[in-house]
Amino acid sequence: MTNQKKIAILGSTGSIGTQTLDVIAQYPDRFKATVLIAGTRVDTLIQQALQFRPEWAIIADVAQYWKLREALEPAGIRTAAGQDAINDAMMLDCFDTVVTATVGYSGLTPTLRAIRAGKQIALANKETLVVAGDIVCKALAESRSTMLPVDSEHSAIYQCLVGENHDRVRKVIITASGGPFRSFTKEQIEAATVKDALHHPNWNMGAKITIDSATMLNKAFEIIEARWLFNLTPDQIEPLVHPQSIVHSMVEFVDGAVKAQLGIPDMRLPIRYALGETTRLDAPEEHLDFTKYPTLTFEKPDEEKFPCITLADLALTRGGNTACVINAANEVAVKAFLTEKIKFTNIYPLITETLAHIPFIESPSYEDYVACNDESRAIATEIAEKISNRI
Ligand code: MG
């Protein structure tokens, strides 16, 4: 079919990547995966490529290249490996839209390349906007590229804003499940294990974002993401804990009207909406039955128990490279927690201590961001080692 949308998936073997392939498989007339890119999971990538028959399958880990090539070359699927190959792939003619489903800072460079190549971006990698929202928005303004959010909260806000005048928005309310530790005491959080933190009540996601949900830094990142996606001021963005995760976010207008988008927690909804470019496609999954959710509750986030959420305010008021440092330190901290080198409650101080060591840059260039990320990771790694030797 000629008007099939051709899709590249950056991070095809992760949680969002595999759910994107689910959606593509549901609409074979509409969507075709033409480029699959993975980090290290070569066996899954091979299996996906043999099923979806993309033009390209690319792996970040060069050590896995021969295995990939041997498996896919006989099937006529082209292969490549390494970060440069991934960055270069963003300029291939064989796709129109890239789903950026990779985790962390690594999404920034390929996303910028894709923007410059005029591709549509279905943004699942929020860190791209957290780290360098200013230069990403500038690149978008200078390109014919457009960006649609895949993050469920931002998809909800986007859906609420359709047909509305942007200057009539009073504020957006970003809902948060509160994560697995919402009803824990401070003492219980202090003693939390990796297993406790990985047990998210509503959403089935990758390890990194599940830990970010438990610290609520994920919500701080989503506030920053919303600031850039919807051009809002910091005081126009309010987080609100909603443990049932049915209201995916809301927009309040100047006349007091509030619009919300609701649905069962299933990432395939925002993925489908972004890939369909806001067209509403039929969904075969379970639909929302209100009688199963007779009570929807809302509460303010507890900043004392979840101090990471306050980092959004700090990042947005200081600006510059602040969020880049927070993100880098957090990536190190989450890894150290997952490998049981530090405790859950060490994550926040590790981030703030890293911030205290890194010089502030008011208007960073792309090169400044790259250097700041490297430097912040090095400092955060040293701090993590020190904490690890203490406990
Ligand atoms: Mg989200």
Helix vs. strand class: alpha/beta
| Helix proportion | 40-55%
Output the radius of gyration. Answer: 20 Å
Low-confidence stretches: none
Please give a handful of descriptors for the protein shown.
391 residues, alpha/beta, seven-stranded parallel β-sheet, four-stranded mixed β-sheet, 16 helices, 44% helix, 15% strand, binds magnesium ion
In summary, what is this structure?
The protein is an alpha/beta fold. It is built from 16 helices and eleven strands.
Describe this structure in words.
It is a single chain. The chain is α/β, with parallel strands linked by helices and 391 residues long. The protein is built from 16 helices and 11 strands. It has a 7-stranded parallel β-sheet, sandwiched between helices. Strands 9-8-10-11 form a 4-stranded mixed β-sheet, with helices on one face. It starts with a strand and ends with a helix. It binds magnesium ion (MG). Magnesium ion binds at residues 151-153, 222.
Detail the topology: elements first, then pairings.
Elements: E1 5-10, H1 15-26, E2 31-38, H2 42-52, E3 56-59, H3 65-72, E4 78-81, H4 83-89, E5 97-100, H5 108-116, E6 120-123, H6 127-141, E7 147-149, H7 152-161, E8 169-176, H8 186-190, H9 194-197, H10 207-215, H11 217-229, E9 237-241, E10 247-253, E11 258-262, H12 268-275, H13 311-318, H14 322-338, H15 347-357, H16 366-390
Parallel strand pairs: 1-2, 1-5, 2-3, 3-4, 5-6, 6-7, 8-9
Antiparallel strand pairs: 8-10, 10-11
Helix pairs in contact: 2-3, 4-5, 5-6, 6-11, 6-14, 10-14, 11-13, 14-15, 14-16, 15-16
